Amino acid sequence: MMILLALVILGVLIIIASVLSSLLSLYFEIKYWRGRRRAGELINGNYPWVTVIMPVRGLDQNIKGNIASVLDQDYPGRRNYIFVLDSDDDPAYGIIKDLIKGFNVDASVLINRGGRSKGEALAFALSHVDGEIVVFVDSDALVHRHWLRNLVSSLVKGSGAATTYRFYVPLRRLSLGSLLRASFNMIGITAMQNPVARFTWGGSTAIWKWILDKWRIRDYLPYYLSDDYVITHFVHREGLAIDFVPESLVLTLEDVSIKEAFTWSVRQLWYVRVYGFRGFLLYAASYTLYVVTLPIAIALSFINAWFIVPGLLPFIFGVVKDYIRISGIKALDRFYGINITRGYSTLLALISILNVYFSWLAIIKTMFTKSINWRGREFTVMDAIRLMKERPLE
Ligand SMILES: Nc1nc2c(ncn2[C@@H]2O[C@H](COP(=O)(O)OP(=O)(O)O)[C@@H](O)[C@H]2O)c(=O)[nH]1
Ligand SMILES: [Mg+2]
Fold first, then answer.
1. End-to-end CA distance of the chain
2. 222 Cβ closer than 6 Å to some ligand 1 atom
3. 332 lines ligand 1 (CB under 6 A)
4. In this predicted structure, what is the pLDDT of residue 224?
5. 371 shares its domain with 242
6. How many distinct structural domains can be found in the chain?
7. How many CA atoms lie within 13 A of 239 on its CB side?
8. What is the 81 CA–ligand 2 centroid distance (Å)?
9. What is the share, in percent, of the chain residues with pLDDT greater than 90?
10. How many Cα neighbours within 13 Å face the side chain of 163?
11. How far is the CA of 337 from the centre of ligand 1 (A)?
12. Mean pLDDT of 318-333
């Protein structure tokens, strides 16, 4: 009897914790979109010289559209582009060469022959930079015409780095896999909204060249599978702020199966596990809380049917939170309003319920994952740790 009572109390406490934490997330979401100041343009219009670096390996589903969007920028200052591949046999090589011809821009395609990772490619490109500001961008990012201008404006106004994040949108057909990945991915936006958790997302970040030089960031990049981790570390060391610029969110137009979405999610979590273990534990704990809430509420509903209500609340709050977030994004620019349809917004918000279980399974799988496959390259935990130990961050 005593044991049963203790279990009921524990169950009630877990449900309360889950309801409160989801309510708090909803509150922060509303507060974020209400309190945000729009990233404005520069007053005096003095835009520095920017070098945009895109590492490329293989063919992204929307590669032509993505690269064209990055080249087609409305940027008032001087800019040049560096594409960096590991081989001129890469199928993307010819595509990039062709695309460049169509735009009147200063762009070069470098080959980091024998390169073994994105980090090595970035380090190689950094030795060819002339601009005052460097902007990194991934080949799966579709951007709008003011993407570059927004990021640079943030730096000129005083931040050390300006970052943004990605939002997944289906390319040809909507599928459960694409929805789950898009929902999973939104946890990154939560991190960006919070200055403590914020990081320089490698898929689209602007940073002062002098910071890269001063801390010799180029020498560290080849030793880490996460450029985000290295650059975030040194911007903090410099004591400068990392600004989050939602107005420059990038869209990734891709279709994936559930299996691909799961493998992708595990790889993302794997980096967190390897390079930010405390964050990984926090993440695991909070998802475990949400995952056990409903089963506990169902068990307690045998005592009193009303228990099911607080058991469902966290999921309802989660759906509302995501809907508010997506609406906030849609309102940022016509680009988002057009590409993110109302039907997709609703489905994506609803899928957050399934995503609780999907994310949790991915977390569990990540705990036991020794190696990942990233664009056809195999990396093991041992490799990652050995490399990191060769060049620890100062
Ligand atoms: N040159 C080069 N680029 C790479 C390599 N691996 C990934 N990339 C590029 O790095 C960027 C990020 O890769 P992606 O697979 O999208 O990583 P994700 O953001 O974790 O999904 C993309 O622009 C890729 O084309 C590599 O080994 N060499
Ligand atoms: Mg990517």
1. 56
2. no
3. no
4. 97
5. no
6. 2
7. 0
8. 19
9. 96
10. 25
11. 27
12. 98
